[in-house]
């Protein structure tokens, strides 16, 4: 009897595909959650170029900031290359870009200098950003020897991330969009990039929070306050002990 009922239930499942929500042709998100109205009134056109080296896993995320950056800047001012190692034969013109003397890599290595300390001996820069999680970024850097030869810079800023619906590794971490906006503001000496590029992110977070999302604290904060929910390994245990001492002091 149960088997007959099961077959009847299956037979009542609609054969037609589910109705899909209308998508915005620009950002390709459902129109109800489209953030295009928060993009700059006119696409910003900096002297410098942004080159994103994007881990394949980023493309699968629902809430990404790279499209906001690409649509906020003039055409071809933000190029995206996908992979786990760079450059590869499929990456058109990337090797040439990486070998140019005015190319800089935003990466916090021990040799990185403050981006504000550049000599600005170039009319413009090709700013390379790795678009991924921090562990993925380290893996990409380790497997891409050409990246090691590029002048490396870092951001020194007191800004905190507005991407409050996603957990950041530490208090000072910024999203790809925020990092690019801050870097361009410093390179171009123009705050318009910080002011206008991140508005779609504010709109996205506002919508998500109004529809059930919650704000996220950084992993660093959760560890220090002993509220980190996940099982931790030896490296995090060591970090936890040191932060416990810091909290107790």
UniProtKB/TrEMBL annotation:
Pfam families: DTW (PF03942)
Keywords, sorted A to Z: S-adenosyl-L-methionine, Transferase, tRNA processing
Keyword Transferase in annotation: yes
EC number: 2.5.1.25
Aminoacyl-tRNA synthetase as UniProt keyword: no
Matches recorded under SMART domains: DTW
UniProt catalytic activity: a uridine in tRNA + S-adenosyl-L-methionine = a 3-[(3S)-3-amino-3-carboxypropyl]uridine in tRNA + S-methyl-5'-thioadenosine + H(+)
Gene Ontology MF term list: tRNA-uridine aminocarboxypropyltransferase activity
Major enzyme class: transferase
Any one of the GO BP annotations: tRNA processing
Domain DTW: 20-213
Domain of life: Eukaryota
PANTHER family on file: TRNA-URIDINE AMINOCARBOXYPROPYLTRANSFERASE 2 (PTHR21392:SF0)
Family in the record: Belongs to the TDD superfamily. DTWD2 family.
Official protein name in the record: tRNA-uridine aminocarboxypropyltransferase
Source organism of the structure: Parnassius mnemosyne
Lineage: Eukaryota, Metazoa, Ecdysozoa, Arthropoda, Hexapoda
